[in-house]
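Field reference: sequence -> structure
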Amino acid sequence: MAKSPAMAKSPEMDGVELEILWSNLIGIVTERAKALQRIAFSPIVREAGDLACALFDQRGRMVVQANTGTPGHINSLAFAGAHLVRLFEGRCEPGDVLITNDPWLSAGHFFDITVLTPIFDGEKLLAYIGSTIHHTDIGGYGIGAGARDVHEEGLWIPPLKLYERGKPSAMLHDIIRHNVRTPDAVFGDLSAQVSSGEAAAEHLITLCERYGIDDIEALSDEIINRSEEATRNAIRKLKPGTFHGEAVFDVPGGEVITLKTAVTVDAETGSIIVDFEGSSPQTTTGINVVLNYTHAYSTFAIRSCLNPDLPNNTGSLAPIEVRAPVGSIVNCAYPAPVNARHVVGMYVPMPILKALHQVMPERVLAEGSGAVWTIQIQGRKPSGEPFTSSMFNYSGGMGARAGKPGPSATCYPTGVAAVPIEILEAAMPIVFDRKELRPGSGGKGRMPGGDGQIIQFHMRTDHAWLLNAVPSRLERGPDGIDGGLSGAPGRFLVNGKPVSEAKKLTMQAGDVVLLETPGGGGYGKPVA
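Structure field:
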């Protein structure tokens, strides 16, 4: 992940001093992110790492991120932190903790709750520490795509104070507790976010005292300015021009989505514009994407190809502008449903990589399976006690690279891990009959795409149960690149019959669910 920003001489700060301070900042946020992951209640956070943690300066600029997390959370957190700082400017006091899950201000759906802690040394504001994690439940429809507008999807928390001068907001806590299915887990995760922020605050105050720093503003200027200039210099080395890419894929319910990008490289200013004009319009199911989330995966795709060792902060994101028509599938307008926004959002890098193949073919990869297949289950245990599972994910194969095969059963671009089946079987009455690779599903090529996987499960219950499932690429597999062949499309079967529904499914005791995730596309013509 991010390395030292001491990449050029600066008259304002000695490079050695900057290296020491930078390493300390990385340590603070990374330590807190890992602690947050360890103590989280939600398995998707604790086991899969579906989280982000970052430090912000007084102006709301993301200065440094933790060395763990997912692109959709990390880069969306940059926007969420900036919004919260702006909205509460001059209104924060020691002990306050800010919160929101507004999809258009943060990470794109209600499940991702952002918590931002102002860091005070006495009465002096030093900075902010923020985190975004995926919560087990937020009420409403659940993780699936079946809601018809955003208000059916769960509890909307506007920008508010979760704590005021160290005391919990009793009214907000009561509202949250009475609107979620798993209040103990939700508040356990919120407590983990708050406590990790408090610990980070203590460490930052100690750092400032140790090095005689009144605040981090001069340091953040140095880091952000150097990061931006380094990113612009990397862009200046590219071939200028406008390059086009397109990705086509089917989503739950069988609807076909098209993402079109025009990637314009300006080698003179060192900037890139990604324009999604011509992409599909927003839809009536919950797969719509807010611009923050589109921006997060667009910048991730570009920066991964440019120089992945550069720090990821407000400075390195500044040279990349992302545009999309309001009302499009990647810049949806209120009140569009968004809870399964990852189904489209995780395909955002695919057309960008196809465009960048015309600029730096050795650094891109072929299309992969795209969005992880997410599952959420509600039902009753054999005892009759109701339960709601956390979301769990399964990936397909990753696209091949110019010099390496695509990894099998690997999440790209999200990077989340799979929750171990032992954890899931211990948490709810689910039994996994199969979990294995899907041989031959990766596309052939000079470098083959990665294989998908096969997962089969049933529920250990005598009661009917509900299944939220959002598989994609059931009709058309991932494209190969540079002459490589496509990967195999996926299959989603219930009792041996194909199913593609955007809505929540009512299942019966004894029903068997089979997932066969897509394989990745190949790179280059197959060798005879």
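Note: The radius of gyration is 23 Å.
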